[in-house]
Amino acid sequence: MTTALDADLSGFLGHEAAGAATLELLVPGARCAACMAKIERGLVGQAGVKQARLNLTTHKLSLTFDGPSGDPARVISALDRLGYNASLFDPAEAKAAEDREGRRLALALGVAGFGAGNVMMFSVPVWAGLFGQELEPATRTLMYWLSAIVATPCALYAGMTFFRSAWSSLRRGRANMDVPISIGVLLTLAVSFSETIQGGRHAYFDAAVSLLFLLLIGRWLDHKLRSKAQGAARDLLALQAPVAYRLDAAGVERGVPVAEVVVGDRLAVAPGQRVPVDGRVETGASLLDNALITGETAPAAVGAGSLVHAGALNLDGRLVMRAEAQSQDSALAAIARLMEAGAQSKSAYVRLADKAAAIYVPVVHSLALATFVGSWALGLGPREALLRAAAVLIITCPCALGLAVPAVQIAASGRLFRKRVLVKSGAALERLAEVDHVVFDKTGVLTEGRPHLADAAPALVAAAAPLARASRHPLAQALAREAGPGPVAEDVRETAGLGVEGLIGGRRARLGRAAFLGIDASQSLETELWFGFDAEAPQRLAFADTLRPDAARAVAALKARGLTIEVLSGDVPAAVARAAEAAGIERWRAGLTPIEKAAAIDSLKAAGRKALMVGDGLNDAAALARAHASMAPGAAVDASQNAADLVFEGEGLMAVVDAIDVARAAKHRALENFGFSALYNLVAAPAAVFGLINPFIAAIAMSGSSLVVTLNALRMNLEARR
Amino acid sequence: MSIILVLAPASVMLALLGLGAFWWTVKSGQYDDPAGDAARILNDQLDDRPL
User: Fold this and answer.
1) How far is CA A579 from CA A52, A295, A474, A655, in A?
2) Is A441 a residue of the active site?
3) Domain ranges in chain A?
4) Per-residue model confidence as pLDDT tens digits over A30-73
5) Chain A residues lying within 8 Å of B31, measured CB to CB
6) For the segment A252-281, what is each residue's pLDDT rounded down to a tens digit?
7) What is the pTM assigned to this prediction?
8) Are A479 and A461 in contact (CB under 8 A)?
9) Chain B nearest C-alpha distance from A52 (Å)
10) According to the CATH classification, is domain A245-329 in 2.70.150.10?
11) A261/A327 Cα distance (integer angstroms)
């Protein structure tokens, strides 16, 4: 982000209790202990900073100033001198980043671990007593009472997560996996108390609390996976911090959060910044890159009176515009609403574990009921019959199921993380494993998203390079990259939207659009530049957006996996056709608006296809949110990265193939784990029905089955390392 | 046998102390930046006071 140093950014300051100003910055480049020392020591004492603390895990820098005021712009430029790019956190955004859920789960896990460990102290003597050693009933009852004192409060506290989720699911008339867990735990506690009071031997306090401990490990893993990815997504969002530069009556720039912009505000947009809200240009002329909004690769020239849309990137001249919409009413808002609806439909997705629960819960509960009725009818007393039914519920409590899926997904996302693919949630992996159709965007996904010189004589490149180096236009920059470092033209004048002219070796030369060099604008497929010295015939330089190097290989690999592939692009048909053909894709559609892209995804969904959308632009965000699964490259805009289920960094498209492979392997492994659990239940449940279970066997069987599914999940990582 | 009545509550008390300490570490944000804290303690130039 470019920050105007004279702008006032005090809108981003917070205040601590004592009144001193605080500031949160994101410093993504700080990745080692040395950076931490350099930044903290470099900032304290400068620009009124009293205390600086960098969080190396989240890359967030928290600053406290000496007094109630501070100057964020000075801090950012101090960081810039230290060699780090920093961007502002919206104060509301920083608040939301606090991980309350994580702390609550950690505490519940700690309490359950404490309970499970300490209740063993009293359980081991009881188990020993089961194998012939003398243990008087009075001592056994004493041990059970001590177990109850430790286990009951722990189980009730640690179980709150499950009880709440079970209750809310029951109120909606559905049964998720937390229902049998809650019933199992509460019933176990109740039966154990009644046994202990009557001096019986079937008390399972240890089972209740260690079951919760194992289940909470699964929850904790699942939460860590999600929060890590969400944190990364939030950082990316903050990187393009929503600052608008408002001009007051005196013409002074003042940085404000975009949400505070109101209709009628005069806003300055410097080159390199994005247009904050929809509006109309008052003064200035420039080129705007609309690729994020429409997918067009060619920049559009704007001048006084032109309509500009939020999200467009200002390429060369400073613009002063008047806001005509608030940020929530901008053209972006329609896209945002589509995305929201997509996210809602995704949250309705039924996860594997819940599908298993839908079968599992009724089976287990009717088995327990049948056991109770059957044993009573066969002549056992009601108390013995109830105990057997409870034993069925306890032994079949879905401990292995609750742990099986999160453990697999943690292992899978760890494997993808090493391939530089970020997985945002476990559900995303499950959806990705189901896809049967892949939709690619063109610009920035199939192609690298920036122009390369397509064909021109080396002599011409060398001749034009000095002028190209002086310009910020993307095509000129591509030309400069091609030519490498060298001299820069003198006396350069840039005409926004047309071209540059200057002196090269004392001769006046021009580089720019056809019209800038006095040629009839010709229709051409490639984006192009013309170059010529005065009084010489201009020569043409053609540019094209090149395909990612492994695009064709990735497409072939996807086809080999039985997936159908399609390109949906907002670019002109000729460019789309060429890219699709080069990548080996037969089906493509061009010239689509963001809404049409989302509609195309919806019609695929209506036809029963499960589509994976791979896109990067703002024009893809709605489609990404509505697709069955979605991926975005690391260079994508914030909205798209937020909407996507997975984000892949790195240059290659093979990441898409890898992600699908790992997701399918993870699903396979999870189903295997369900198989193990079913097998375990097939053995253990009949034993419980016929009253063959005692507290020792229950403890061994439950932790044994959890261990087996966890080890099976970790096998994924072993395979990957080999 | 009556020694159990002394030892069992004593051991539970000790474990509760441990649980209390864990509670405090979570509440005071000591798991918020594992990567940074690991580096801070080894480098004298860094501010390693608790937040």
Assistant:
1) 49, 14, 20, 19
2) yes
3) 1-97, 99-220, 245-329, 417-448+548-664, 451-544
4) 777 788 888 888 888 777 888 888 888 777 888 888 888 778 88
5) 106
6) 777 777 777 888 888 888 777 778 888 899
7) 0.68
8) yes
9) 9
10) yes
11) 7
